[in-house]
């Protein structure tokens, strides 16, 4: 396997340190986008930018070849109060780098950037590469990857960088949030009058608790519905005429979000309004050349229950990156420097010799 330049790997680590030291909460990623743009420019690429999203194409981009998208995000959640380190300190202790966004998903972002630069100037690649480091992933925002995809052209395959210990997430659960309203009629609680919307909601919630979707995924398991919020009533002696509740639905790849919404509407009496339909479940065929390449390299395949920007990509994708999902959004989040170096080499090994079907 071709070895990655040690200098390039160290520069990627230094970029991650700079990114950690620069706050980049969702919708506030201006300065980290600047850092990524400058990093690509300094290495001879010709980056483009839209909002807080930065991307670049390989030097010998050929429209007759299939295109692979390398994507990760540079926004972070806000740190909790239980951090014992400075979230923006980027403290290095031997092999360990501690800081907000180090694991989710800074390590993946800089590893993909280094991978892109490794291949950037190579001639006769069997595919094109676009590296896009994007914003607003933590809030599934409209100003993130969704705003950039129309600029990128046709994509044959997406490699989404998230912490998976460099194993291949070949399926990912989707998400649809339902705002539900049960309607009734007010009356005095002391008399037999009114129509209690809360009781109607309880009946619907019981159905949501007990229902089992018949199609169960081998990788992702069943569709999971969880009622997470409920609100009703104005005072103790008034029968409520309205009860609202929220349902978190995690979909598997065997159901589209619209299918799930329509099925729920058939069985409950409450009004059902999905907040969005675009956070879909995804799956890549186990026979896909990239998956087979990963298996040959000793990578494990699995189904992921955590949501990523993969949910907004209408083409074949896989999720893979250095770090561990269990560290994400936790106090004193960290990444190992060795994980970054191994991540870069792992991405390069995965792409070396990979062949996709050419465009017609």
List keywords for this structure.
360 residues; alpha/beta; Aminopeptidase; Alpha-Beta Plaits; 2 domains; four-stranded antiparallel beta sheet; 16 strands; 23% strand; elongated
Question: How would you describe this protein?
Answer:
With about 350 residues, this protein is of the alpha/beta class. The protein has 2 domains: about 5-170 and about 280-350, Zn peptidases (Aminopeptidase, 3-Layer(aba) Sandwich), CATH 3.40.630.10; about 175-275, 2-Layer Sandwich (Alpha-Beta Plaits). It is about 30% helix and about 25% strand. It is built from 8 helices and 16 strands. Strands 1-2-6-3-7-15 form a 6-stranded mixed β-sheet, sandwiched between helices. It has a 4-stranded antiparallel β-sheet with strand order 10-11-9-12. Strands 4-5-16 form a 3-stranded antiparallel β-sheet. Strand 1 and strand 2 form a beta hairpin. Helix 3 crosses helix 8 (about 335-350). The longest helix has 18 residues, at about 100-120. The model has no long low-confidence stretch (mean pLDDT about 95).
